[in-house]
Amino acid sequence: MNTVHITDCGCVTCLGDGLERLWQSLLVNTCGFKPVRRFNTDGYVNNLAGCIAELDDIPHGKRFPAILEKVCQSDIRITADAVLLTATTKDNIELHERYIRDSGKEPAKFPVCSMIDYLAKTLDTGKLALNINAACASASSAILWGAEMIGNKETDMVIVFGADIVSEFVFSGFSALKVMSPDIGRPFDVNRNGLILGEAAGYVVLMSETKVLKEKRTSLGKIIGWGISSDAHHITAPDRDGSGLQRAIHNALMKASIRADDIAAINGHGTGTVHNDAMEITAFRKVFGNTIPPIYSIKGAIGHSLGPCGLIEVLVGLRSLQEQIIPPVTGLQDPEPDIEACVTMEKTSMNGNYLLTTNSGFGNINTALILEKV
Amino acid sequence: MSLLNIAVPGGAWITASGIGCINGGNEFSMPEGVLPKLRRELLSSKPEERWGRLDYYSKAGLVAASLALKDAGLDSRISASTAVIASTVSGSVDVDHAYFRSVVPQGGLLASPNLFAYTLPNCMLGEISIRYGLTGPTMVVSQTTPDMMSGILGGAKFISYGLCEGVIAGYCNTEACIHYIDTSCKPGAVFLILKKAEEKSPLTFNGSELMYNGRVLSGLIDLMRELTHNV
Q1: How remote is the C-alpha of A361 from its chain's centroid?
Q2: Which of A13, A361, B23, B42 could bridge A135 with an S-S bond, Cβ 3.0-4.6 Å?
Q3: CA-to-CA distance for A142 and A164, rounded, in angstroms?
């Protein structure tokens, strides 16, 4: 198989534009949650979210293209042969909100995927453009798909884009499902009581080793392993024995041809909900036994951005490997006893070449990606 | 990649012209129009606890996939590692709209958690994987090409990548798909059971295109016509 490198990346989150600002904010435990301004939250269990302040002043219906525009302000270096894969759970859901609120109007024509339309035009690439929806594992599934395409020599370059915004549609839903925290997000904390939503957009450019060498690009890291598996259990709740996530991790380790004890750190999905975090801890315990590597989650800092979360976490994971630093778990106060030694409120140093990043989502799907330091 | 031989042991559809399956000798067509009402008995003679919760998109996907498995004789002995993939344009939009209608009247106080749970199009695939105990990959794909083939092509890719031995691959759109800018899309659910064929097969995959007897297929309707005419 062809080796899969990451040669370029970028993101926007509630902690600022670009990976550097996100990384530095994470290291000093900055939480990006603020009261939501773009819709009335009186009827919901919380009023906080990781919103990008600039988007609050953008008219309803225009925020999704605006977040894409923001991330496209980066100097994205791709060639015309790049395959575009996108990952969004609800695309421009505000168009549908408006359609329902203006119920007297004739049905509008909705775009199939406004993200593909925007990016194909802006980046001048649309070759085989495809949106992948696997709930909160959408971006990690798209990265996995892109890695397979390069690994199997179907193409030399894939750009994976992920984006979702904080909308009333999604905010009200998580509130109604009673998985939204009434205060803050506390991933892997014994007193965790739900997630806080966030919004984000980002991209990674995946490239074959052949093209990296030919174009003299700098590799930021490699994707060497990936796995994807369903729980076959429940639409919205994770399987408590973590078997689906275990399978995804085992498949990723096999693909990477490394052992579990080669993993130096884990970026967990770590939503801060009671059942997700418990399932992950169970799965990690079963895979790693009594030697679970350090675990962190960034959702206590930027919130759960849904579709793109796995992509943002790959970016942070790359940085973590480059700097050999594990970011703190923002929001954590009292760690779950079973992983007390593996999670921390302080940044810590790491020593190793491989990082595992995992995601799980509605529709009972789990993904695992293994990154390698270059 | 080398040419992948693909076996299609079964397949089924729900379109505006009715419900059919490949081995049942039914004629396939996919006209515009009203999709048939779906009864719980299409799935099972026993009570189905979850049936009442499902929107039409999820019911259509679940029924078409179940009939495809039955058509292949695999409904009670399918491999757990089987993957499920579907392409969609309208996805869960009907339930999206129903859900947001529950949000609007009282500032979200009456927002329905049961409806919200089905506002992700991949939850339909989750229903299939739960019903048959499938632990392989699942995902929904959307593409702006008019061939309605991205789910089937994705399934062939899953097999060629070695992510699974077999896949339930298809297409699922409700009548709401006419409200999308891609006007070539037709309402209906079509699912096929795809497996790697050990011997030479008329259906082959070259990594990006599906071919039947060496001819590149133009889309889903072309594929279904070949499969139903050559049973």
Answers
A1: 11
A2: A361
A3: 15
Mean pLDDT of chain B: 94
CB A55 within 8 A of CB A38: yes
- ipTM value of the model? 0.96
Q: Report the phi/psi class of residue A9: left, alpha or beta, with left for phi > 0 and alpha for psi in -120 to 50.
A: beta
The mean pLDDT of chain A is 95
Contacts B141 to A, Cβ<8 Å: 130-133
| Interatomic CA distance for residues B181 and A48, integer angstroms | 35
Mutate to test the interface with B, among A96, A364, A369 (most CBs of B within 10 A): A364
- The percent of chain B in helix, strand and coil, each rounded to the nearest 5, is 35, 25, 45
Which residues of chain A are within 8 Å of residue B208 when distances are taken between CB atoms?
Answer: 128, 154
**pTM (two decimals):** 0.97
For testing contact with chain B, the best of A85, A230, A249 (most B CBs within 10 A): A230
Distance CA A132, CA B137 (A): 12
**Is A230 in Cβ contact with B134 (below 8 Å)?**
yes
Check: CB of residue B193 under 8 Å from CB of residue B9. Answer: yes
Rounded Cα distance, A15 and B82, in Å: 40
What tokens were used for A258? 């490394």
CB contact under 8 A, A134 and B138: yes
Q: Residue A5: enclosing H or E segment and its boundaries?
A: strand A4-13
Instruction: List Cβ neighbours of A218 (8 Å cut-off, separation of 6 or more).
Output: A7
Would you call B111 and A362 a contact, using CB atoms and an 8 Å cutoff?
no
* A316 within 8 A of A139, measured Cβ to Cβ: no
Helix (H) or strand (E) holding A35: strand A34-35
Tens-place pLDDT, residues B31-66: 999 999 999 999 888 887 889 889 999 999 999 999
pLDDT digits (tens, 9 = 90+) for A202-253: 999 999 999 999 999 999 999 999 999 999 888 888 888 999 999 999 999 9
Residue A124 to residues A2, A66, A83, A116: CA-CA distances in angstroms?
Answer: 26, 18, 11, 11
Decide: residue B25, CB within 10 A, 0-12 exposed, 13-18 middle, 19+ buried.
exposed
Contact between chains at A231 and B135 (C-beta distance less than 8 A):
yes
CA distance A280 to A67: 30
Task: Tally A–B CB contacts below 8 A.
Answer: 172
Residue B93, token pair as written in the block? 């939009």
C-alpha distances in Å from residue A273, one per residue of A2, A281, B10 = 38, 12, 41
Are the beta carbons of B141 and A133 separated by less than 8 Å?
A: yes
Contacts of B164 in chain A (CB under 8 A): none
d(CA A357, CA A371): 8
A132/B141 CB distance under 8 A: yes
